């Protein structure tokens, strides 16, 4: 009987694996089409200050597939990166994002920043900086360009650091501000943030989850905030889910707080309705 079970186990395992591989393949094949058929959407999540006033937003992509339903970026971005579609996809998102921001500015919206996630592979793609420069010039006045923030993750630090430094400084030179996303989960030290000339750091949600009842996390978070603020870096707290978390963190007067406590990422229409007066 144990044998039979074991065999079933194997069969089940193989089936689950096959489904996973199949789904990955399907996603891989459909991504191009999704781009062509405009099934990729940009959503916006508000960033609030300690007084719960809107200071900015983060663009988060969504794939609304007629067959698969809504697919989250944690699933399709890694696939897009491994196949290289991320270049085309990233350019599309960047274009859409800057265009939308330009529309808001022209209607008098006064948010301080507009953040876009950029993957490592995109960053290293030849001609990326030129492309960004073209789009910045196409859509934004010089005075508004510093409001564009590129969120990069600590995984850039696993790459050739000379090359990373060069690309990031080129982006800074055309007016882009830089944010270190998911800070604390990976390789970075505060020292790197200075070498890379980063403007902002986003403290990862994992440190916020247990902020209320973990002394270690409290020390960790408040220390990071203090050092970052002393270096003149903006601090954004990610993954604020409860009033209690917000109340405890608001006293540190971080540049922004972001999370489901305020709002989940919203479609453009919803975001405009709830947060902007156009
Ligand atoms: P991220 O940049 O760290 O974005 C934060 C993620 O946490 C988002 O997930 C957001 O919806 C979610 N989140 C925000 N507040 C809360 C909260 O209070 N509780 C919980 N449980 N989650 C919260 P999302 O949209 O699924 O994106 C996942 C990741 O995919 C992003 O992490 C980012 O690394 C990547 N990503 C998203 N859009 C893009 C894109 O256009 N380009 C690139 N390269 N990456 C993207
Ligand atoms: Mg981000
Ligand atoms: Mg993050
Ligand atoms: Mg993340």
Automatic annotation (TrEMBL):
Top-level division of the source organism's lineage: Bacteria
Q: What is this protein called?
A: EAL domain-containing protein
What organism is this sequence from? Sulfurovum zhangzhouensis
Keyword hit for Cell inner membrane: no
Upper classification of the organism: Bacteria, Pseudomonadati, Campylobacterota, Epsilonproteobacteria, Campylobacterales
Q: Which UniProt keywords apply?
A: Membrane, Transmembrane, Transmembrane helix
Residue span, EAL domain: 24-278
